[in-house]
Write a structure and sequence with these properties.
- The radius of gyration is 21 Å and the shape is globular.
- It starts with a strand and ends in a 12-residue tail after the last strand.
- The longest helix has 18 residues.
- Helix 1 runs parallel beside helix 2 and helix 3 packs parallel to helix 4.
- A hairpin with a 2-residue loop joins strand 1 and strand 2.
- The protein is α/β, with parallel strands linked by helices and 353 residues long.
Length: 353
């Protein structure tokens, strides 16, 4: 459970769970938060380096934020300022991928005063966070359902960077919009084609080709229209990398794992994949005062936590129901239908003619 206690106008939480969610919703709602007992009983108490980097990122895109951290780092007070946006560069912690920070920017970008033009440096691909490629092909497309004009909304990977030194570079541009529209996303449709990219950094081009061959061997059993291109980065476009000595793998294992993961997401079904559930839930809640619905696969722990936090920050309650057996038969797992009425959240900085 993610229950908050209210002291004055401050929402008080305990523990480090859902740290990023609380900061995002605090900035959007304007409500200050206090988080205590952050890893207080662990061998290394307090907030981590990647969380400090996230706080600095929010400080860059807001004006007038008040941040107070105690000496041990186990208690944080965050009073959000006004969302400003603008052009800036940010060095992300290598403890987490660039996607950890990019997700937060996607959630708040449309409501800034100035259009976002953020350049993020760090690890572009790891095994914890969604890659910039996934956010570009999945989350950005999900956001486009909620805006009438998506011109200028883009993500570009200019350099790829891996552990331990990072060195990657991702550019995120986001326009300013006044309001989100309600949606009815109830038909997930059928899979017609599969497109993908296999990248390799400072290794033989044959490595990427072996990944592609194994992945296509798995996916062609599902449907015939499969195309995966290779991205062999040159030396000046990548950072120094080392192999993972603790868990070495051959290219064929990487290709098979990626293809299997994709097929599993298709089996789960829904209008969006599991990594985009929280983003769509947020857009529905902040949309116009009308009914929005969308169908997704089983809710992730992150999405469930987001539903609870939305009720605490905005008072929004969702209706959660299972799709009927007739509609979901033969299409993977049983789907979940989420319904809510938007709160009519508006960007007060966006002028209208």
């Amino acid at each position: 459970m993610t229950t908050a206690t209210v002291k004055g106008n401050v929402l008080c939480y305990k523990g480090s769970n859902f740290f990023r969610q609380r900061l995002v919703l605090s900035v959007l709602s304007g409500k200050p938060i206090r988080i205590s007992y952050i890893r207080a009983f662990e061998d290394e108490p307090g907030i981590k380096e990647f969380e400090v980097s996230l706080i600095r990122l929010f400080d860059k895109i807001t004006n007038g934020s008040v941040i107070e951290l105690n000496e041990t780092g186990t208690s944080l007070y965050f009073q959000p300022g006004l969302l400003h946006g603008g052009t800036f560069s940010h060095e992300c912690s290598t403890q987490r991928g660039v996607g950890y920070y990019l997700e937060a920017l996607v959630m708040v970008g449309l409501f800034c005063k100035q259009p976002l033009n953020a350049t993020l440096h760090g690890v572009t691909n790891n095994n914890i966070d969604p890659s910039a490629d996934l956010i570009k092909t999945s989350m950005i497309r999900a956001v486009k359902n909620f805006v009438l004009d998506d011109e200028g909304l883009e993500i570009k990977v200019t350099k790829r960077g891996m552990l331990p030194l990072g060195g990657g570079e991702v550019i995120f541009k986001c326009p300013v919009r006044k309001q989100l529209r309600p949606v009815q996303l109830l038909d997930s449709g059928m899979v017609k084609r599969i497109r993908g990219t296999a990248f390799a950094l400072r290794v033989s081009p044959a490595i990427a080709n072996r990944i592609v061959d194994k992945a296509k061997g798995v996916l062609l059993n599902f449907l015939p229209d499969v195309y995966i291109n290779t991205d062999q980065c040159r030396a000046e476009q990548v950072s120094n990398v080392v192999s993972n000595g603790e868990d070495p793998s051959i290219p064929e294992d990487v290709g098979e794992g990626a293809a299997t993961r994709l097929l599993y997401e298709i089996y789960l079904g829904g209008v969006v994949d599991s990594s985009s559930q929280a983003l769509v839930i947020l857009c529905m809640a902040l949309g116009q005062q009308d009914v929005s619905k969308f169908v997704t696969g089983p809710l992730t722990e992150n999405a469930i936590g987001f539903l609870r936090h939305l009720k605490e920050f905005f008072g929004v309650t969702f209706k959660v129901a299972h799709e009927s057996d007739e509609d979901s038969s033969g299409r993977g797992t049983q789907k979940v239908v989420l319904t809510c009425v938007g709160i009519g959240y508006k960007n007060i900085s966006k002028r209208t003619i």
